[in-house]
Amino acid sequence: MAKRVAVVLAGCGVFDGSEIHEASAVLVHLSREGAQAEVYAPNIPQMHVVDHVKGQPTPEHRNVLVESARIARGNIKDLATLDVKGLDALIIPGGFGVAKNLSTWATQGKNCSISKEVEGVLRAFHAAHKPIGLCCISPVLAAKIFPGCEVTVGHDTECEQWPYAKTAEAMKELGCRHVNSQVTEAHVDARNRLVSTSAFMCNAPIHHIHDGIGNMVREVLRLA
């Protein structure tokens, strides 16, 4: 039987939704490993819409589920309908949508709140001892919800290669253990069944990011 994996998206586009290359890499690696991806997104308004040419917000209004459907080629479900009983694992790609639409991390950092729907899904998989894969910024969700967990967003020292390293410090302040790792690596927290990889938290060639996500997907499926 093919493993059934829920993939939760947060919109479409790095600055206001899911990072498209990360979401695509997750779907490609799940397919390569013979798993069945089931894509979900919350049916809520985006925090805002960003013009990806100018890097600036626009007056538009968009819906997270409708925008996520672009990545899923229309084959997507409302997150409210997700039933953990029929699924083997959960993966949440990164992108600023995680910090803007699934949580308020973008504006409040460690003092953020997590969407009730998203928190409920994460807690349901965790309680069922089913693995959760997280990449790029999405490990902050686990750091906020599961104190004492182990995750990685890459490195904790800011430099040209790791421009978002301060995220690791904020996560440590929440009581989680941050594990430094390379972009092609995935870290496994066996106790909490969490698998994380840094993805675009690192300035790296896109194939290295793709490889790291592949390692994350394989570890998630190994635990499923």
UniProtKB/TrEMBL annotation:
InterPro entries: Class_I_gatase-like. NCBIfam families: PRK11780.1. CDD domains: GATase1_ES1. The gene is Gatd3b_0. This is GAL3B protein.
